[in-house]
Structure formats: structure tokens, C-alpha cells
Design goal:
The protein is α+β, with helices and mostly antiparallel strands. It is built from nine helices and four strands; from the N terminus they run αβααβααβααααβ.
């Protein structure tokens, strides 16, 4: 008996392709969510307000004993968080970054003279503050007894006023979306790194200028921008 060739209708084929497409889409979305969660889980961060450590416009600690307590508590908390998290404790630390941030107000002439540098700017101030924090960590041996943390991992950086507080940026994105057709879904769930990736990819220089102005338009907003961030960055 002659065997009839197997025939697949266009309807059956279309249904199969749609099913495969939907299945692959689910896998892609799931992978994307896992990647985002992995990215969030690769960084542990603590933010310290300027007023806890420094007088406005200065990089010398206003009270070194208080600075010691605040910074040591922050380092201890980050370490405990890393070691107590079942997903993180087996990951090794890549860097311990200390980053200074300022508002967009110019450094006054009085402080420029004090620092013997008429070109002293928020770039200098933010980096000098980060270095002050790292020096305090090293001088007081704050990483002693913390397995996995080494002094060679400490990295200072200064961002001046170019990375406002995440809270301020989220407010801007919500307000700006009403007039500039900025499409940002689930703003509140985004991490600071995800927000900055979006801004770098989608914003023009003019939009970035508007963002910085918005985030520094009141004393309350500027105060939130002036901060120190201490991060543990983990290997994936």
C-alpha cells in the first residue's frame, strides 16, 4: 500500500509558528527579567548625606569621630548584607567604590582661595571628598577581619553635579514624561544604574541640562544631591 505524503496545512503551520514565537518571547522576557535582577544583585550600596560628614563646600570632615562612626557603620552594614544574602555570599567582591556627588552651585571664591586653587570646581570637591572617606577607611583599618575585602579594591571617584540623586531624577522623569513624550515604564522599580543607562541612551545634551537644572532648582533638592555613595561591586 502506497503511503500518502504527510501534509501540513497553512493553518496548522501558522498556529505552530505563533506558538513557537510566543514560547520564545516568554523565554526572552524571562531572561531579560533575570538579567535585570542579576544586575541589581551585583551591587550593594549605601548613601551618606553630605551633612553627616562635611560642611557645605568643604572636603575636610567637620567631625572626624562622627565621620568614623558613620563610615565604619556603613562598611560593616554592607559587609553583613553581602555575607547574609544566600545569593550573594558566594560571589567575590570586584571593587569597593566611594563616589562623591555635589549640587550644581559654583564653588565660592572664598573657598577657592582657601584651597589655593582659583579653578577649584565641583569635580575637585566631589573627588576630594571620596578620597577623604577612603583615607579614613585605610587609616583606621576598617576592612580588617572582613574576609573578601581588600584595601586594593578601594576606588575613589567624583561625579560633580552630573549624577543627581535617584529620587530627584525619578521625579523629573515623571514630570517630563507629560510634556516631552518620555516613555519610562515602572519608574519607581528602576535602579539608579538602569535609570542612567536609559538617560545615556535616550537623552540629548539639552535634555541632560534640563534634568540637572530640574534636580537642583530648590535647596531641598540640592541637599539630596550632595552625598557620598559607598558600593560593593560583585563579580557575576
Amino acid at each position: 500500500m502506497k503511503k500518502e505524503p504527510h501534509f501540513v496545512s497553512l493553518y496548522d503551520l501558522s498556529f505552530t509558528l505563533i506558538f513557537v514565537f510566543l514560547f520564545m518571547s516568554v523565554i526572552f522576557i524571562s531572561s531579560l527579567k533575570e538579567a535585570k535582577e542579576k544586575e541589581k544583585k551585583s551591587i550593594l550600596q549605601i548613601i551618606i548625606a553630605e551633612k553627616e560628614l562635611f560642611n557645605e563646600g568643604e572636603y575636610v570632615f567637620k567631625d572626624e569621630s562622627i565621620a568614623f562612626y558613620v563610615i565604619k557603620t556603613s562598611i560593616d552594614s554592607l559587609y553583613d548584607l553581602w555575607k547574609s544574602d544566600t545569593l550573594l555570599k558566594n560571589k567575590k567582591i570586584k571593587n569597593i567604590t566611594v563616589t562623591g556627588h555635589t549640587d550644581n552651585l559654583d564653588i565660592g571664591m572664598k573657598l577657592k582661595i582657601k584651597y589655593h586653587n582659583l579653578n577649584y570646581s565641583n569635580w575637585n570637591l566631589s573627588l576630594d571628598r571620596a578620597n577623604q572617606v577612603i583615607n579614613l577607611i585605610i587609616e583606621n583599618k576598617m576592612l580588617e577581619g572582613k574576609e573578601g575585602l581588600e584595601y586594593g579594591m578601594l576606588l575613589p571617584s567624583g561625579k560633580s553635579f552630573y549624577m543627581p540623586a535617584t529620587e530627584n531624577i525619578k521625579k523629573y522623569l515623571i514630570d517630563a514624561s507629560k510634556i516631552n513624550n518620555i516613555k519610562v515604564k515602572d519608574i519607581d522599580s528602576l535602579s539608579s544604574d538602569e535609570i542612567w543607562k536609559y538617560i545615556e541612551a535616550k537623552f540629548t545634551d539639552k535634555m541632560k541640562e534640563d534634568l540637572i537644572y530640574y534636580c537642583n532648582r530648590t535647596p531641598e533638592l540640592r541637599e539630596k544631591n550632595r552625598r557620598i555613595e559607598i558600593r560593593l561591586e560583585l563579580w557575576d
